[in-house]
Design brief:
The protein is mainly alpha-helical and about 150 residues long. The protein is about 65% helix and about 0% strand. The longest helix is centred in the middle third of the chain and has 14 residues, at about 50-60. Mean pLDDT is about 85; it is low at about 140-145.
């Protein structure tokens, strides 16, 4: 596994690793799960590695609850990349792909993504929200304590 992790981190041979994980990841969720932080970084791209990374994570999410592990990664992205239209679009696709696949409350992550996208200083990022209609009340501001 260290070889796979290093290949994903360094970018050398990453397509080969992603393709391997697409092929065997369903049978080896333990391997995919161990590589989740590295895979997540690929998921923030809209190109071929991003598509394949999201496919691998979606397969994993069908068998392993991911909310708790993805939450800090998503929060970091929403803090650091909220003006990157490609990262925000790719993250929206990832969250849409895994929503409700693992039986946990994954709706919290898309709701946080949507609020961050709508509050982005970048108009192009804000427009992405139109591609993902809000669930009931998802765009409502959080109620203040005591309301």
């Amino acid at each position: 596994m260290p070889v796979l992790r290093e290949s994903l981190r360094a970018g050398r041979g990453s397509l080969a690793v992603l393709n391997l994980l697409r092929e065997v990841g369903g049978d080896r969720p333990d391997v995919v799960h161990a590589l989740l932080p590295e895979l997540y970084e690929y998921c923030l791209s809209v190109n071929k590695p991003g598509i394949w990374g999201r496919e691998v994570v979606r397969t994993l999410a069908a068998s392993v609850p991911l909310h708790d592990e993805l939450a800090p990664l998503v929060d970091r992205t929403l803090r650091d990349e909220v003006t990157d239209v490609f990262a925000m679009r790719a993250l929206g696709m990832l969250l849409d792909d895994i929503d409700n696949t693992d039986g946990t409350d994954t709706a919290a992550l898309p709701a946080r993504w949507r609020r961050a996208v709508l509050a982005s200083p970048d108009a192009d990022v804000r427009e992405i929200a139109e591609e993902y209609p809000a669930d009931d009340g998802a765009d409502a501001p959080a109620a203040a304590d005591g309301d």
